Amino acid sequence: MQRTLTASLDLRVHDRADLIFSIAAAGGTPLASERLQVHSSDGPCAVTEIVGPDDTRLHRVIAEPGRLQVDYEAVVVGQAVPRPVDTLETVTYLRPSRYCESDALFSLARSELGYLLEHRRLHEDGTVSGGLQVLPWVAAWVGRHLSYVSGSTTVSDSAVSTLAAGRGVCRDFAHLTIAMLRALDIPARYAAVYAPGLVPMDFHAVAEGFVDGAWHVVDATGLAPRQSLVRIATGRDAADVAWLSNHHGNVTVEDMRIDALIDVLPADDPVQAVVLA
């Protein structure tokens, strides 16, 4: 399986700014080639790579006022080997977070989907077996309660407000999925990805649920085959994985072009367990 990823960002920097980009494939991704270039009106810019949790790769640029062009290209061949999971990770991703208020949705999740937990078993070391079937059921539940409507939400909307509105985009579907999984005592996290097959093309967001010793992809939008996805960043919710963070300055995004191609687009069975490697 070969995937080709590109991201081209055209920014206008109004004041000297500290910019953090999260657009590169995560560490451990099997790359045949990769290129990241940042140019200002005065020429090439220095880029510093920062490796964060879950192998997220951030790139920092101190940008001066003027035009800033960011170009990223990568060719991914095959699948990465999932890294080992530690206990702190599963504990962290059980807790409520800014956009995934699992505590507020606890009663709803239990009344709507609690029956799915009957065959789960808690072991002495805190691990849980069984329950893999919960993931597609939660995805289906979210899909029934939300309509995908571009531009229907803002950056301040959370799982609770999205559910009340009944509509959202990929980040909102992921937030509600994560909140419902955590309310069912299933560790869940947010992944920003490149998504071959997505129409219209953009950065995409999915949830991952930790069941039977592995993180499995849950995408209630069903807009792209999960087997084709390439991880960019991982976190508690969208606050941890923004593709651009801006500090100290004022920046305008004037144009953004994302593309992700794959040699053969796979078919995706919604009930099949898929690991995002």
UniProtKB/TrEMBL annotation:
Transmembrane segments: none
Cited Pfam families: Transglut_core
Residues of the signal peptide: none
InterPro entries to which the protein is assigned, alphabetical: Papain-like_cys_pep_sf, Transglutaminase-like
Keywords from the named record: Hydrolase, Protease
Name of the protein described by the UniProt record: Transglutaminase-like putative cysteine protease
GO molecular function terms noted in the UniProt entry: peptidase activity
The organism of origin for this protein: Plantibacter flavus
Lineage of source species: Bacteria, Bacillati, Actinomycetota, Actinomycetes, Micrococcales
Domain Transglutaminase-like: 162-222
Domain of life: Bacteria
Gene Ontology biological process: proteolysis
